[in-house]
Amino acid sequence: MVREELSSKSISIVEVGPRDGFQNVRKEIPTGDKVKIIDLLSAAGLRSIEATSFTHPKWIPQLKDAAEVIRRITKPPGVVFSALIPNEKGLDRAIENGLEEVVFVVSASEALNRENFNKSTWESLAELSSIAEKARRNGVQLRGAIAASFGCPFEGSVSVERVIEVAEAFRNAGVSAVTLADTTGMAHPLQVKELLSVLLSQLSDLPIALHFHDTRRIGLVNVYSAWQAGAKIFESSIAGLGGCPYAPGAPGNVATESLVYMFHKMGVETGVNLDRLVECSQITQELVSDRRPDQGQG
Ligand SMILES: [Zn+2]
Questions:
Q1: DSSP result, 13-39
Q2: C-alpha closest to that of 41 among 49, 52, 33
Q3: Over 80: is that where the pLDDT of 246 sits?
Q4: pLDDT at residue 154 above 60?
């Protein structure tokens, strides 16, 4: 997470392509290509990069080279590399590999939490305190992420109260920020505005990040709505990589280059060099391009 105070004319970006994107690419991406893309991302000015996930390869074989990726990437000063962790074992591996930041995901929807992690939302939150304590002892920053913040493919709508309950649990555990994830691309701009107005007033001390998927091609509209509501941290993916496991062929995350283009046009700084980013996006598309024909361009 970017640590300095953000002026009203700047936002910060968390690049999630190497984690959320790569895990959804069918083709096996060689480790060297992953390293190359991550190096291009940091060289383009991205300061927070979710580089991989320490999840058992049985669940996410695409990221089985997590440790090697972390070992081989260039680590310029001022760039924070993070990894997603599904449990304490994931945290142990992140610590062994010298990561500065980890992301622990809990779903606001009971059904999605069971589907993804094979336990209830509250069982996941019960693990949170020991994870937070161990992260603190080891000097690792912990970020929380709430999956299905804007709806669930199994349960349908997810209440604002439910999202706030989970966000409060994260805050009480001392996380540095909480990400509201629109895991399956169900959010719409008015919903984004309403949820943020409640969250930003009730949990004003907790930095909130937004993670929108472009499943229904309105991801960037949701970004704009969130920014207008006061949000300043956005997660996005180079070349719009990613996808939605419940909607095969759907586009992935909001593309980082589109997000940067939009904010720069509006006079909002991102710290990213757009030309270099676009070049990185083209190279990324070439490197991951022989995906199955039914996969969306994302
Ligand atoms: Zn995602």
A1: EEE-IIIIIGGG-SS---HHHHHHHHH
A2: 49
A3: no
A4: yes
From CA 214, how far away is CA 23, in angstroms rounded? 16
Going from the Cα of 211 to the center of ligand 1, the distance in angstroms, rounded, reads 7
Question: What mean pLDDT is predicted for residues 30-47?
Answer: 98
Model confidence pLDDT, tens digit, residues 78-122:
999 999 999 999 999 999 999 999 999 999 999 999 998 899 999
Query: Cβ(96)–Cβ(136) under 8 Å?
Result: no
- What's the CA gap between 89 and 95, in Å, rounded? 10
pLDDT value of position 290: 66
Beta strands (DSSP E) in 108-224 are 141-147, 178-182, 208-212
Answer whether 0.85 is exceeded by the pTM.
yes
pLDDT higher than threshold 50 for residue 292: no
C-alpha 251 to ligand 1 mean position (Å): 11
How confident is the model at residue 4, as a pLDDT?
46
Cα 183 to ligand 1 centre (Å): 5
- Asked if residue 219 has pLDDT above 80, the reply is yes
- Which residues are known catalytic residues? 244
Spell out the CATH class of 12-288: alpha beta
pLDDT, residue 7, reads 53
Where would I find the H helices in 178-273? Answer: 189-202, 219-228, 256-265
CA of 185 to the centre of ligand 1 (A): 9
Q: Give the Å distance between the CA of 11 and the centre of ligand 1.
A: 19
What are 165's two structure tokens?
Answer: 């309950």
Domain boundaries, the chain: 12-288
Angle at which helix 219-228 crosses helix 256-265, to 10 degrees, equals 40
